[in-house]
Amino acid sequence: MRDVYVGGIGITTFTRLEYPLSEIAAYPAMMALKDAGIRDVDHLYVANMGSARVNHQTALASAVVDSLSLTPAGAAVIENGPASGASALKAGFAAVASGLHDVVLVSGAERMREVNNLEATDFVATLTHPLAEYIYGVTLPSHAAMFTRLYMEKYGLTERHLAMVAVKNQNNAMLNEFAHLHQPITIEGILDSPEAMTNNPYVAEPLRFFDACPVSDGGAAVILVSDDVAKTIDRPLIRLAGVGQATDTHAVHEREEPTDLLAVRRAAAQSFEMAGLRPEDVDVAELHDAFTILEIVESEEVGFFPKGEGHVALEKGETAIDGSLPINPSGGLKGKGHPVGATGVAQAHEIVTQLRGEAGDRQVDGPQVGFTCNFGGFGNNVVCLTFVREGR
Amino acid sequence: MAVDLERILRPVDNPLKPFEAKYMTLASGENMVVRQIDRDDVPDVLRHIEPLLHVERDFYDVVAARVYAELLAYYRHRMQDEYVLVAQVDGELVAVVNGREVTPGLGMSLHTIALRRGLRVGAHAFAAKMEYHIDTLGHQEVLIVAESPIGFRRWMIEYQLEKRFDTPHELGGVPSWALTKELFDRARSTLVVGRRPVPPEMLAKAEAKILPPSDPPTPPADLLAATRSLYDPTATALIAQRTLLGGEADNA
Q: So what's the ipTM on this one?
């Protein structure tokens, strides 16, 4: 396999965007092309989960490649639930590493706020098992709530730990101009004050309002290039060094131990093995905190902390921007937002930004290795990526 | 002898019991003071409401225009028995609510407008307004309408308001909804928050100056947003259909 590098990156603000989905995909792609200083690409992958259902638009890649005037480059949509973004990056990685293409543009985009909140929640819930879960009214918040309750019983996690994740990530988002949420929150305001239960009511007990990510529109793009092309681009050299993907049972109740996220564990191990690195080598990570519980559990499953001790590291401040292993300096899905198809690409965008040393007020101190975990389904399809800064 | 026309035009207000200021902690950890203002304070509020007339999103333009008119009418003595409450964080204006007394037993809720979003400031201020009507003024019920889906969700759905469709509301003559004392009592434990007395320093800071909002709602990037807000992004219509308009089965 050939080495694969990041040539350029781009992103939109994550918020309610008032322009067409194809433009939400095209705008960050243009930013990435400008960032890389290149004009032509061999292939375009568009990561998206819901255009057909939410936006009444199919064949999105055909629209985007034309919007960008990149025809006759190849173009295809990658749909893999909330892991669509990193799945598209994996496809781009394979295309460049195999020698099939030299320049692949990966753009993730979602416009979820075209529909109301209930429809958006229902749309995401369609990733659950149709006969064993969906027909019984299971949504992702209810899935996460049941998971959280089990985890609390088994590992001593409390609502305070969840609130600590919410505060950390939403306040990190204050430092990110592209983030959806720009309202600081405090433990007192969402947990301890007499008004906390009204400010932060249960959505699906034990998860509260501020334990969930917002419904966002947004797009992000990454250009992957071969070694030869990377040498011509005057940007810091970031290599996509490891790619891992694993699956688990579609229905959560079929898992032997529901509190284990085996797909996360296996995808991370694959990614580290390919990169020739270990979890302790990672300097900064973006984990898939669609719900606060997931940041804690993923931080254990990928190997950063022993099982059941993620919340202890959180308590010690190890996952803060100035901690020993900053997690979600971008604000994560919780603070930055979660336009589902774009999220995996946006995670990569943040890691590349951090490794380049261009993250401004949220910059982690001198990172050389970055890691992303893009969590699809309820842990049934996970993609992990490892990035390494090299040379210049 | 000349007729004093102003004496004819100007309503004679009935004295309303004052609203006792209270405060609450927001999700941000900041303390928000809700207090009553006098006529002399109105110009300070109006200058912060005026920019919202041009925010064609979530009906801010309509609500701001009507709030502006109601507060100006209060200031210029052209509204009977009106009151105005403001919500402030460190002096900064974050919400305005107003209403009036129709009869000793009936209140008329006029408007609630939030100048900072995402922290339930509007919901907290509305709850304070209802508390004023029910607990302080002793109204048996308050007539309410909403101009936006967000307002409808916050008031009609969250408080489970009763229909008073045979009574036109003063805002546009549309059918009214009513918050009764019984409904308010039911909502106290979950929706009505706040502590009294307000610490003197906190209250003094609020009273010293009404500061401009630091993060007010802004106009949409394009006017399509104004249209899209009509599409009910909060799913209020669907919830209303299920919980209020759909009959008892869905309430069970």
A: 0.89
